[in-house]
Structures are given as C-alpha cells and as structure tokens.
C-alpha cells in the first residue's frame, strides 16, 4: 500500500478520533469480564451467572448497534458518537457513586455498558466515509483496532480492583473516557459525503439480500469469537488454572492484544490478496485452535499460547470481513455496519454465556469451545459456497479495483 496516497486520501484527525473513541468504548464495554472474579466472589455468583454477567453487555451492545446505526444516519456519526459517550460516562458515574449491591444491578449496568459496545456502528462509518474503495480495508482496520481497548480492561482492571476495590474501577475509568470525549469533540469531523437518512423500510430491505445474512454469519464467528473470549478468559484462567485475578487479567490481555492489533493487518492483507482467500485461511486456523484448547491444556501457559493463536486468526478475520462489506454494500455501509456488528455481538454473547453454562452443566468448558469451532467450520463451508458467485458478480474485476 502506498502510505502517502493513503494519508492524502482521507482525514487523519477523524481517523485518530474514531480509533480513540472506539478504543475506550471497548475498554468499558467488556470491563465486567476482567472484574468478574472479584464481582462473583462478593456477590456469590454461580458459573452460569458469571457467564451471563459478562455476556449481557455483549448482547446489549449487539442490539444497540442497530439503534446507533439509525442515529448515525439521522444525526450524522459525530453527534451519534457524542450521545453514546455521554450515556456511558453517566452510567459509570452512577455505578461508582452508589455502588453495585446485587446481581440484578450488575446486569443493569451491563445493559448500559452495551451503549459503549455500539460505538462500533459510529466509529467505522465516521472513519470510512472519508476514504475511497482501495483504502477501505486499511482505514476500517485502523479504526477497528480500537478492539484493543478490550485488552486495556484485562490489563488494568483486575490490578486496580485489587488495589482500590472493583466499584472504584468504574470511577477511575471516567478519567480517560472524559479526556477522549474532549479530543473527539475537537478532532472528529463528518465526511462531506454523508448519505441521506434511511427509513426503517430501507433497513429491512437490506435484509432481503442474502449476502447481508452471509456477512452477518461470517462476522458472528470472527468477532463473536474475539469478544466472547475477551469477556470470558479472565474467569476461565481463574477457574481452570487457579490463577489470581491479576495474573488471569494479564493472560487475557495478551490474547486480546494479539487479536486486536492484527485487525488492521487483516484488512491490509485482504486488500492485497482478497478478503475471501484471507477469510478462508482464518476460519480453518480458528476452528483448529478452538478445538485444541477445548481438551484442556495441562498448563496455563500452554492454553495461553493456543488462545493467542486463536485470537490472531479471529482478529485477522475481522479485518477481512470488513474489507468485503464496503465493496458489496457501499451505499448501505451505515446499515450494514450496524447489522453485521450486531451479529458479531450476538456471536460473542452466545460464546460467553455458553462457556459458563457448559461449565455449570458438564463440569468442563469443552462443549462450549467445540460448538464454536464447529460454527467456524460452518462459516468456512458457507464462504466456499458463495465465493464463485461473489467473484463473478459484484467482485468482478471490471467493476472494482479492490481484490475480493
């Protein structure tokens, strides 16, 4: 990729603002996972309740992405993002000031944290509308690297909870959130080409296109795997290997950093070799590593190595999916970002809740991991079924300069 042409093509301050907003939003979106060991201990939660606690913000974030997609279309991305940030800051301030004293209150906070998960539907259109098709994979990859915020939560959450108490972590999170909110207001700019707002009928119209459903399924596996593991691994390492919350958080952060930092690389590789080819390899690897880890590695460091490999595959896959989406749905990118993002969150909710349920019912996490590995294989079969049609219709060389 010609770096100079990329820098000239778009609006770098907006790309940076989108990344920072996305990064911090994702940090608080999954914060209940890294704090899960301490919260569960104080509130006396079962394995299933722990699974549902970390899965609730993921599901709420998934469903709210549609709402955010509508707001982006009607108010433009910058304003939609500002509203989302105010809601999240307010919810954390209330949780910090009044405390969390019951399972129901944790789940309620989880619903509000879902607004942070919906940042995806704002940050991506905010950044991508500034860039031409040949730079979409890279631009969306950079903005999407905000996934790394999930690693910040795992890195700092458990240690801060041990030092100051887990409720005070909500208060401490307000500091970076407020700083980034100001940066966002100053630096982010809506692209001159903002498509006109769409009616609800137009949203539903996209769902009549079978390709929309394929993209939703593909992303539910790549992003669902990524965010489901990001939310669950602190509790997994603590339960499975007896690691203390802080060490379990460091192990989780390593996995999440791997998955989020390669997202831009995934977008860039897809720009070079085509999203279909790139995604095919990623599904094979993700299924393989999830299957291996399901058998329970003897040592925690061995499990860490396998999870890092799984997260690298899923993170690269996230970048590859979003290299393809704007090529197929350029005019409906706002709607599709919301729908595909929602499907990703639903996949994450399924994985996070099923791991807790699997442990509760069978005494092992194996079933949860194996079913998700099977979903990756199903996605691979689906991709193989559509690739010929995609390459000869909307991905045909005479229609686009991008590699499909």
UniProtKB/TrEMBL annotation:
One of its GO terms (cellular component) is membrane. GO terms for molecular function: nitrate transmembrane transporter activity. Its main location: membrane. Belongs to the major facilitator superfamily. Nitrate/nitrite porter (TC 2.A.1.8) family. Keywords: Membrane, Nitrate assimilation, Transmembrane, Transmembrane helix. It is found in: Membrane. InterPro entries: MFS, MFS_dom, MFS_trans_sf, NO3_transporter. Residues 13-391 form the Major facilitator superfamily (MFS) profile domain. This is Nitrate transporter. The chain crosses the membrane at residues 12-32, 52-72, 79-100, 106-127, 163-186, 213-236, 248-266, 278-297, 303-321, 333-353, 365-386. SUPFAM superfamilies: MFS general substrate transporter (SSF103473). It is a multi-pass membrane protein. GO terms for biological process: nitrate assimilation.
């Amino acid at each position: 990729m010609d770096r100079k042409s990329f820098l000239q093509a778009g609006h770098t301050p907006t790309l940076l603002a989108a990344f920072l907003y996305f990064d911090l939003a994702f940090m608080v979106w999954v914060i209940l996972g890294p704090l899960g060991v301490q919260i569960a201990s104080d509130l006396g939660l079962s394995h299933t309740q722990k699974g549902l606690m970390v899965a609730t913000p993921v599901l709420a974030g998934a469903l709210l992405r549609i709402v955010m997609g509508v707001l982006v279309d009607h108010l433009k991305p910058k304003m939609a993002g500002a509203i989302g940030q105010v809601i999240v800051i307010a919810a954390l301030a209330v949780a910090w000031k009044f405390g969390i004293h019951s399972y129901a209150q944790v789940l309620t906070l989880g619903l509000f944290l879902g607004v942070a998960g919906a940042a995806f539907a704002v940050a991506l259109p905010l950044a991508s509308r500034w860039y031409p098709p040949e730079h979409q994979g890279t631009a969306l990859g950079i903005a999407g690297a905000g996934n790394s915020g999930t690693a910040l939560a795992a890195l700092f959450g458990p240690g801060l909870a041990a030092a100051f108490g887990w409720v005070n972590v909500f208060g401490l999170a307000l500091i970076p959130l407020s700083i980034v909110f100001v940066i966002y207001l100053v630096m982010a700019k809506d692209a001159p080409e903002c498509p006109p707002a769409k009616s609800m009928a137009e949203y539903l119209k996209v769902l009549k296109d079978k390709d929309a459903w394929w993209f939703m399924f593909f992303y539910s596996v790549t992003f669902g795997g990524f965010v489901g593991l990001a939310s669950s691994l602190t509790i997994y390492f603590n339960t499975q290997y007896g690691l203390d919350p802080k060490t379990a958080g460091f192990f989780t952060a390593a996995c999440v950093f791997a998955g989020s930092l390669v997202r831009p690389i995934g977008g860039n590789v897809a720009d070079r070799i085509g999203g279909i080819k790139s995604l095919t390899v990623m599904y094979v690897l993700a299924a393989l590593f999830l299957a291996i880890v399901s058998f329970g590695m003897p040592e925690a460091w061995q499990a860490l190595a396998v999870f890092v490999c799984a997260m690298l595959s899923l993170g690269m896959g996230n970048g590859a999916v979003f290299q393809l989406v704007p090529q197929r749905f350029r005019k409906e990118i706002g709607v599709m970002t919301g729908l595909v993002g929602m499907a990703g969150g639903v996949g994450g909710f399924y994985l996070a809740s099923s791991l807790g349920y699997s442990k509760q019912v069978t005494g092992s996490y194996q079933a949860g991991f194996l079913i998700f590995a099977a979903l990756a294989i199903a996605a691979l079969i689906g991709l193989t079924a559509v690739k010929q049609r995609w390459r000869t219709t909307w991905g045909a060389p005479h229609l686009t300069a991008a590699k499909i």
